[in-house]
Amino acid sequence: MAGRVKTWVWVVVGIVVLGILCLVTMAAAGLWYAKTHINIQSASTMSASEDFARIRKQFATQKPLIELDDRGHFEHANTDRPNGPHPPDALHVMAFDPDEGKVVRMEIPFWLLRLKVDSHISVGGDRIDLKDLRLTVEDLERFGPTLIVDHKGRGGERVLVWSQ
């Protein structure tokens, strides 16, 4: 009987160790993802404006898919557009905070958006929620590469979201 308990204990210990290794692996993968897909840099208002203008120029003929008021609340959806030529690969977010003098750039692959149970993205403590914007991942894929949000806040903050 002592042999059975000993075997059972080793099996439990093995399962616990395997679980801990899985958690450590997932944490390492999350850190790797954040390091490779999120970029935070110091920037002046002038250089940030130039970066935003460069990206915005790619979508010069498009209205943003979602228009927000100066407080960042949903105002209007411009969904009267044709389907895109192909589904986009990634959702890009660029945000500027003039108080901190930082630009945050983030790239989220669409396969990850499809996997997410909750449909929000956190950027510097602020949440961008696809449900609040009245969009689904399927909508974004259908529209193809497009300008999603171009928001300018009262205090000089700016957020640009696009798919490519």
Roughly what fraction of the amino acids lie in strands? Answer: 25-35%
Total beta-strand segments: 9
Average pLDDT reading: 85
Biggest sheet strand order reads: 1-5-4-9-8
Largest β-sheet summary: 5 strands, antiparallel
**Amino- and carboxy-terminal Cα gap:** 63 Å
Question: What pattern of helices and strands is seen along the backbone?
Answer: HEHEEEEHEEHEE
Principal-axes geometry comes out as elongated
Structural class: alpha+beta
Q: What Rg, in angstroms, do the CA atoms define?
A: 21 Å
Task: Specify the number of helices.
Answer: 4
Q: Which residues sit in consecutive blocks of at least 5 with pLDDT less than 50?
A: none
What proportion of the residues is helical, as a percent range?
A: 25-40%
Report on the architecture of this protein.
The protein is built from 4 helices and 9 strands; from the N terminus they run αβαββββαββαββ. It has helices spanning 2-37, 45-57, 110-115, 137-143, and strands spanning 38-42, 66-68, 74-77, 90-97, 102-109, 120-123, 126-129, 146-152, 158-163. The strands form 3 sheets. Strands 1-5-4-9-8 form a 5-stranded antiparallel sheet. It has a two-stranded antiparallel sheet with strand order 2-3. A two-stranded antiparallel ribbon has the order 6-7. Strand 4 (90-97) and strand 5 form a beta hairpin. It is elongated and about 70 Å long.
